């Protein structure tokens, strides 16, 4: 710790408010427009050269983003204007950890500005140690990003096969199948309401969570774990309102939250077929006002679909199940790596654990760079 020094955050970095740009003003291009929590689009010009570290102007510092390309920081954010000789990636991890500390201390800042931050007392290491720390942490992030890319590729491969079989009608045996009343023989014209039943999730506040093995599934993601479950997996969950169309395939027994809808009855259909079918439906087109406020039987009855034979659905499942199993494994790895990185981050940032020790732990976990492959529909 002898090489670490105490300074004010204002002596560590300089922050600046982002630039005005409405969605209507965005002209599609290669440069990300970075808002307070995410990339809101891509523009044909940029304001700041890479690399960039961006935080939100409201709430805590928990939302910190790092961009590797030239970018446009949106006016809802603050960006690091001057790194003052510090390693940019270290600044990203430092602010990420600082935000966790502030949130954990209950000192959330309603409207964030530079004056709130510049007076904070912080401790930082030398540039050499900063680079060594980022090397350790970036190993985790590299693997997490790598696995997330593979998950996306597997998802796309399953959807391509679904389109080939059930949209383009190039399913096994299609050459010898007659078309009767506009659909392949043995298929039926029906609606979503006839092939599945959605049900509202169950009330459970964060205060009522009791740590356990069962995921609590919200409208767009797993929001925690509980010691009890309501539904046996595998299952499919979506949001109840604005997040309709964001589907989650949940393998294990789970608790669907009251912000979500889950399929309570697949009516004899295969879960993997239903999941891929739902991802092809754009619910927003069913309401001239935009996103549908909620799903109901009338809405589902208005969505017409072609229903293939159960035997063909089962054949499709045999093809895509290995992809989804691989996805499940990768998602588990992402979760474990994220938890390991988040445990290590505050210890490195406080000097509680040395970089040498952290590197040995990382090496012991087998964290290394791997190449991302593009899975094909037949991959297992």
Provide keyphrases for this structure.
4-stranded antiparallel β-sheet; 22 strands; 36% helix
Summarize the topology:
Elements: E1 5-8, H1 9-12, E2 14-17, E3 31-34, E4 39-43, E5 52-56, E6 58-59, E7 64-67, E8 72-73, E9 77-82, H2 88-104, E10 109-111, H3 114-118, E11 121-124, H4 127-167, E12 179-180, E13 183-184, E14 188-191, H5 192-195, E15 197-200, E16 214-217, E17 222-226, E18 235-239, E19 248-250, E20 255-256, E21 260-265, H6 271-278, H7 297-301, E22 304-307, H8 310-350, H9 355-364
Parallel strand pairs: 3-8, 16-20
Antiparallel strand pairs: 1-11, 2-9, 3-4, 5-7, 5-9, 6-10, 12-13, 14-22, 15-21, 16-17, 18-19, 18-21
Helix pairs in contact: 4-8, 4-9
Word description of this protein:
- It is built from nine helices and 22 strands.
- The protein has helices spanning 9-12, 88-104, 114-118, 127-167, 192-195, 271-278, 297-301, 310-350, 355-364; strands at residues 5-8, 14-17, 31-34, 39-43, 52-56, 58-59, 64-67, 72-73, 77-82, 109-111, 121-124, 179-180, 183-184, 188-191, 197-200, 214-217, 222-226, 235-239, 248-250, 255-256, 260-265, 304-307.
- The model is unreliable at 103-108, 288-293 and 367-380 (pLDDT under 50).
- The chain starts with a strand and ends in a 16-residue tail after the last helix.
- It has 380 residues and is α+β, with helices and mostly antiparallel strands.
